[in-house]
Amino acid sequence: MGIIRTWLYKSLRNRFLAATLSIVCISLVTLGVLAFYVARLEMYSEVQRRNEQLSRLLARDLAIHFDMLADNLRLFSYQLEESDADLALKARLFLELRRNAPLTYRALYLFDATGELILHLSEPLAALLNIETIEEITNRPAISVPSDVQAAYTNVSKNSVYISPVCFECVDLTPVLYMAIPLQSPAGQVVVAEIDLRDTWRQFDAVHMGQTGQVFIVSEEGIIIAHPERAYIGQTIDPALRPVLAGYVGQARYTDANTQRVMLAAYTPVSLTTRWGLVVEQAEGEVLSYLSPIISSTLFIVFVASILTLLISLLVTQSIVRPLRNLACVTQDIARTGNLNQQLNVKGEDEIAQLAHAFNQMIISRRESDAAVHKLNALLELRVAERTSELASLNEDLQELIYVASHDLRTPVRGVIQISEWLAQDYGALLPDEGHEMLDLLSRRAHRIHYLLDGLLKYIKIGRHTYKTEPVNLDELVAEVVDALSLPDHIQVVIVPHLPEVTGVKKYFRLVFENLLTNACAFMDKVDGQVKIASRDGGVYWEFSVSDNGPGIDAAYFNKIFQIFQTLVPRDELERSGVGLAVVKRIVETWGGKVWVESIVGEGSTFFFTYPKEGD
Amino acid sequence: MRSARPILLIEDDRVDAMTVRRALRDIHVTNHLVVTSDGVAALEYLRDPNNQQPCIILLDLNMPRMNGIEFLRAIRNDVHLCHLPVIVLTTSGDEQDRMNSFNLGVAGYMLKPVSYNQFVEVVRAIDFYWTLSELPPEA
């Protein structure tokens, strides 16, 4: 089930195919089955109608035949009556009759009123030809009367012909019957004829109905008395056929007990005189076999129609699916590559063509709007580039201005500082205490201006020149820096385990470590100061850290300390330029690294910075 | 100073000139101090035959008209002046300035300290050195 569902949902074509195939198959199979049943019914009724007509016809023929026999015998009996008591004439008549119809009459007997056999002519046909004189017949010695003949004599009534049941001769099973006719004169005499039925039955031999079609006759007791196959003779008929014994005409379907074949039969009573029934029947299997060409041709038509429908539906499906697939392809391509320079081929005017047309329109409008966006983008980029270069040059101008200004401002500030010192030296004695204090403040403020300008210069100088890069042994460099700083005795600097050699601008590394170390030492509040320098391989970058066990920094100031001129102690307590960490940040950012701090107040701070290895 | 010849100070800033004059006085250097405000005026002074040649020249770098480096280049190209020892006394810590100065054969490169007392120490060091060191002979 799952596989079929997957197959169905794989493509539209599969669904179309499944739909058309099922429609075609269901309708064709239904039609076929219906046609088959109609044909079968029709065939049944046709066969039965034929059987019935045939049985009527044959029964009538048989009745006529028998009537003829009876009429002939009656005519014969009239002749016998006319001969009156002349036995020789009667014998001559006997001989004539037998010689005229040798196959019909096997024997003739004449009884007198007392029941004595007075004349008989029962020898076989060959012997009959040898008879030369009538006396040979009349002067015969008496014979014992056959029981059947005796029974016929006994059963005949005074006025009507008696026809015995059919019986079979023991020697060759020849079907015979006995017909007894009472004579009017001399009264009481009865003539009995033994009639050979083979000649009568022979007319049914001409009836041919396929392999299993056959005609048979049943006696009024329901015993088969004539049948193309000897084995059936003497058997009782199927109950389905019994209505014929009551004189009904009809049809029946029954199973033959001998062959187990289902038979379609029609029956007709023969006549009132004999009370026989005639049955015409054919095996149902054979009747149905007439339908097999119809079935096979129907199957062939179904097959051809299915193939044709399949082909047509394939064509139709293809005509629907192909443009859809094209549409899907182009859509995917656009989604993947964004290539809008393509169009779908539009054929016809159906809904799919309309869809393709609309899609093409959409692409065109999308292309136009894309072009507009591109144009606008280009314009914007141009404008941004203009602005950026304007800003860059403005920035450069500003930096130049700051550089020049701070540089040139230093000289007059230094002048102020020195003059204030000379004033104190030369005229200090003349000034009251308040004057001294003012001079002192003047000197301090002038110093601060000088520091600030100095810091500003240091800061602004970074990046003004491009320095050459070289291999820098950081172990050596840091050792040099520590030496140069001549740190106080209570502070120990440790490098763990040792630092890598990198390629870069030596001056910048020196400045970074100088500022970080100065910073760590400047605020050291512990008796045994520990400053630790470490490095870590971060893959594409080196990470360096300078940690101290100083006072630590509140997390609120982590950003502020890296800004220029930002210190966390009042100016007058500790005169510092306030550019150390700003310089570090500016350098690290110049080479594309990051700088940050981690700290616990009271326990110390760690400053980290990274150096990208690709700079190596 | 070993010589009694004057000291030539090339300095445009009056306070700086006063600082040098005061420092020399404070350490009891008696040589006459000639102050010119830029390179052009200094060359005029040096090329005037009426003027006595200085024993050393104290040179500021940032000056109008002709700056210190230009002045150095000028006297190094002048056969009569190229032997004069020049000590740069400047506020510029610029590496390029330092490099140029030594390339032009300066005898010393001193940064002007902010504090006057330190300035005095610098001038004292110069005096001490040039008291020990022989001077080039007078032209």
Describe the secondary-structure layout.
The complex is a heterodimer of chains A (616) and B (139).
Chain A (H helix, E strand, L loop, with lengths): L1 H9 L1 H72 L3 H14 L4 E7 L5 E5 L3 H5 L5 H4 L8 H9 L6 E2 L3 E2 L6 E8 L7 E7 L1 H5 L11 E5 L5 E3 L23 E6 L6 E8 L7 E7 H6 L2 H46 L13 H77 L5 H29 L8 E4 H12 L5 E6 L4 E4 L1 H17 L6 E9 L3 E8 L31 H11 L4 E6 L3 E9 L4
Parallel strand pairs in A: 13-15
Antiparallel strand pairs in A: 1-2, 1-6, 3-5, 4-5, 5-6, 7-8, 7-11, 9-10, 10-11, 12-14, 15-16, 16-18, 17-18
Helix pairs in contact in A: 1-2, 2-3, 2-9, 9-10, 10-11, 12-13, 13-14
Chain B lengths: L6 E4 L3 H13 L6 E4 L2 H9 L8 E4 L8 H9 L9 E5 L4 H9 L4 E4 L4 H17 L7
Parallel strand pairs in B: 1-2, 1-3, 3-4, 4-5
Helix pairs in contact in B: 1-5, 2-3
Structure description:
The complex is a heterodimer of chains A (616) and B (139). Helices cover 51% and strands 17% of the residues of chain A. Chain A contains 14 helices and 18 strands. In chain A, strand 4 and strand 5 form a beta hairpin. In chain A, helix 12 crosses helix 13 (506-522). The longest helix of chain A is centred in the middle third of the chain and has 77 residues, at 351-427. The mean pLDDT of chain A is 85. Chain B is an alpha/beta fold and 139 residues long. Helix content of chain B is 41%, strand content 15%. Chain B has a 5-stranded parallel beta sheet with strand order 2-1-3-4-5, with helices on both faces. In chain B, strand 1 (7-10), helix 1 (14-26) and strand 2 form a beta-alpha-beta unit. Chain B is globular. The model of chain B has no long low-confidence stretch (mean pLDDT 88).
